[in-house]
Amino acid sequence: MNLQEPKKKRHIKLKEQLPLPIVLGNKNEWITYTAHLTDLGSCIIDPSEIVAVHSMGYFGKGSLSRGFPSFGKTRYGVPPVIRNRQWLRRQEWLKQFNELSMEANSKRTNLEESKCELSSSKNLDEDDIKSLKNPAKENIPDIIEIDTNSVSLNEKHKESQQIDKRLEVNGTNSSSMKEDDSLIIIENKFNKQCKNTDNNQRKSMESEERNFFADFNLKENDVCFTDNNTDVQNKLLVLPDSDSETENYLREIKPKIECESFPIQETLHLTFEETFFLLYGLGCLNLIDFDGNLLDIDSAWHIFCKTDKNFVSKYVVYHYFRSKGWVVKPGLKYGGDFLLYKQGPPFYHASYIVIIDILDGDTLVTDQSKCMHKLTWNSLLGLERLSETAAKEILFAQVLWPSSALHTSNTLSVDSLSEFSVKELLWRRWNPKRNKDLEEEDDDSS
């Protein structure tokens, strides 16, 4: 049977990296990543670990992005673009967060004060009484502050004497001027210098921001500069709200740059199969439960089997295709269980839609009690039409359930995975013309 060649994507800018996130460190240490258990799998929070796990093997999906977690990041020097309603919502979140933090701090201070009062009333020793009677140590900072102030006054007095000498040279009377006037002159000169430097910086920053918006074909009056800082890493490009496509939106647009006051951190979400493959198959993941405890392989296996009744069969298929070099992703959007990619979604389109079928290991008959799908001819024809329009093929992954294993997946152990096997079955629509060409080729070869 002739298999179709995977369809490669055009204009690929990424470089292919290692297929699995197993890199040895400088000290020959096995690098591990940390994930936190969730209701649907696990999530990785650390940004550096997110990049490593997703770029090497394309495990997981961004919580706020289609694939790679790129939400809130600058692209080509442009800050992230949000709508005005999103900006206002973030301001509300920041206000609520500040209120909650203030309440928590007030409660904490009240508890600490009450504990201090109880401890002082019960455990008041003679040394404490002597320290209260002799507060000499508490007066030391005040003496230091007085000395620093006297030093600063002496410096100002020297500066005033220098100004008096300059005035005498110019023919003015130094006696008619007071120390306060000389100090005012110094402060005015300092303020003028600061204003000049601020104006120069402001002009340079505004020119840079205007050059930054040159790609938008906007006028100078259409842009609102709200901050002088040109660091786009902590900036947001706020656009006005527009939900209709008929209005002339681009002519009257007035974007503005705002500081990121409430940053939203994106995480990398892993499914149960991806989490257990990194934990059990590669050994490069540390899984933490809801209580903050580190889970081992057996405890994670029992949690996943208890949460998802089809986890055993899904993981067997996932591990099987990953070991063959395919990048396995969820296939819900195409009506299947998994999608198979060559090298990864950025390089190739999905080649196969995988549907899991469970067979008895001895009789090779479909086990209806553990079957994940109730396939009918109508559903198969609809899935075939969908796969043809999406330029993909349907691949049945038949899991041969061993007779030695128990029928329920909740009581299975991790050691029983070696007894499972997978059989591939490629589904294709019968085409008389194609079959006729294959028969002619067989006759010519004979």
From TrEMBL:
One Gene Ontology molecular-function label: tRNA-intron lyase activity
Active site feature: Y341, H349, K392
UniProt cross-references to Pfam families, sorted A to Z: tRNA_int_endo
Residues in tRNA intron endonuclease catalytic domain copies: 311-399
SUPFAM superfamilies: tRNA-intron endonuclease catalytic domain-like
Biological processes annotated in GO: tRNA-type intron splice site recognition and cleavage
GO cellular component, one term: tRNA-intron endonuclease complex
EC main group: lyase
Keywords: Endonuclease, Hydrolase, Lyase, Nuclease, tRNA processing
Cleavable signal peptide: none
Annotated EC: 4.6.1.16
Coiled-coil portions: none
Family the UniProt entry places it in: Belongs to the tRNA-intron endonuclease family.
Known function: Constitutes one of the two catalytic subunit of the tRNA-splicing endonuclease complex, a complex responsible for identification and cleavage of the splice sites in pre-tRNA. It cleaves pre-tRNA at the 5'- and 3'-splice sites to release the intron. The products are an intron and two tRNA half-molecules bearing 2',3'-cyclic phosphate and 5'-OH termini. There are no conserved sequences at the splice sites, but the intron is invariably located at the same site in the gene, placing the splice sites an invariant distance from the constant structural features of the tRNA body.
Protein name: tRNA-splicing endonuclease subunit Sen2
Organism from which the protein derives: Melipona quadrifasciata
Taxonomy of the source species: Eukaryota, Metazoa, Ecdysozoa, Arthropoda, Hexapoda
